[in-house]
Amino acid sequence: MNVEIYCDGSATTANLPGGWAFVVLVDGVKYTEASGFLGKATNNIAELTAAISGLEYVKQHGSLSSAKSITLISDSQLTLKYASGDYQCRKPHLVPLYCKLRQLYVKMNITTRWVKGHSGDTYNEQCDILAKAARGGQTVAATSPSLSQPQVPYEDTLQAGDQD
Fold first, then answer.
1. Averaged confidence pLDDT in the chain
2. Which domain covers residue 90, as residue numbers?
3. Residues 6+ positions from 90 with CB-CB distance below 8 Å
4. pLDDT for 130-144, tens place per residue?
5. Is position 151 within any domain?
6. How many of the other CB atoms lie within 10 Å of CB of 152?
């Protein structure tokens, strides 16, 4: 089983609300998604929170955490470089998030993959939509579907009028 965790955060300045989101795929098929509201957050806080939330979800669902491979996917190079340890955190307000992300990365044997933001990647775009909606208080709680039940790929759930 291969697990991919797409994640994205959305925020403007530290004194305004932020949002985060993740989408989990199992063997290329959407398994679940979630998002959350942050009362006050910078974009880096929102991005890191999204990654941590996605990783924690997978960790808490034993069948997922024992996957052959787990890949964290983001349009934030900072988040991915923090996760892998390529960058050291020098911002005091980010240190707790950085430490949690590194801990999960090492314990779960994660790999990372960068995707260009707003480039049409289906699940990155879905995370962006969810994170922006979460900034306004519209959040999505993760579900725990059975791995034996086939999930419908996101692209197949779009109605003809939904596509631009």
1. 89
2. 2-144
3. none
4. 999 999 999 999 887
5. no
6. 9
Percentage of residues of the chain with pLDDT beyond 90:
79
The tally of domains found in the chain comes to 1
Q: What is the mean pLDDT of residues 117-124?
A: 93
Which long-range contacts does 26-30 make (Cβ < 8 Å, 24+ apart)? 26/1, 26/2, 26/64, 26/67, 26/147, 26/151, 27/1, 27/2, 28/2, 28/4, 28/153, 29/150, 29/151, 29/152, 29/153, 30/123, 30/151, 30/152, 30/153, 30/154
Are the beta carbons of 7 and 53 closer than 8 angstroms?
yes
Phi/psi for 99 (5° steps) reads -65, -40
Six-digit token string for 81: 């470089």
- Strands of the 2-10 sheet, one edge to the other: 29-38, 18-26, 2-10, 69-74, 111-114
Decide if pLDDT at 99 tops 90.
yes
**CATH number for the domain including 58?**
3.30.420.10
| Any domain includes 159 | no
| Structural domain includes residue 155 | no
The radius of gyration of the chain from alpha carbons, rounded to an integer in Å, stands at 15
Question: Could you tell me if residue 160 is inside a domain?
Answer: no
